[in-house]
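Hello,

Following up on my earlier ticket. Below are the two sequence lines again, exactly as submitted.
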Amino acid sequence: MRHLRPLTLVLVIASLGAVPVLAQQVYVYPTRGQTPKQESLDKAECSNWAVQQSGFNPMNPPTAMPPPQPSYGGMAGAGMGGAARGAALGAVGGAIGGDAGKGAAIGAGVGFLFGRMRRRREMEAQQEQQQQYQRQQQAMLSQGRGNWERAYKACLMGRGYTVE
Amino acid sequence: MKTLTAIGLALWLFAISAAAHAAAAASYDGSVPLLCAPATVLECRTDGTCEGTTPAAADFPAFVTVNPKGKKISALDGSRTSAIKVFDHLSDRIVLQGDEGARAWTMVVSEATGQMSATASDADHTFVIFGACTLFPGGSGK
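Thanks for your patience. The regenerated structure is below:
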């Protein structure tokens, strides 16, 4: 039994560390006379439960997908133009030279010196698209946090805490 | 006799002038690459308006190498390349032309000053680029 006490203490400390920072912004009052140790355990368990319920882990938020890549309008409508044609030619040249990979890499840039120049309106549209994407990402993150927080509070209230 | 001397002198002067002109016109044969730095870019539309911007903002390389012998113009790091289809002289200017998909481009470089202007055009849009070029003997023109 004595051996178990240090282990329990370690687990409590570990679980305390696992409670997200967000939980520390929530004021919790034990209405049933729970000890600080019990409160810490409850917080850790409620945090895990909230992750399961909400599908959102504040300690490990979902990684954002890479933003959409700009398209090059100057090359549009050119059939097999730009990078595709360049890569194909590069690959042929590389294959003859014995290094198809290198040839393809060099070929990827062929036809892009002037063709890749971006129109101002295209740039503005791309910037707007990227900003919109960032707003969506932030909204998703905010919604996930909100769901987790509601689940966390519900759990603590169910265990006899007043949560604000 | 005096008339013949005068005619002879005139012919001699003409020959000297023509030779000098020919020498000047052939001063750049394209065997050595050029290094060009675009400074200003204008974007012109069908409504007659043009807007100034920087090469970086227009997604154009800060330096390009022109390699007439290798028949290509490239970003200095070789990441972007365009084939030179026409290499010619016009008076004391070098003229280069090519095309990329929907865009055709023309570059004119003064042999005397190195001043450069280029256009890249499609049906409803033109980019005008101003800059300067210099000989780039070490440049491979990737």
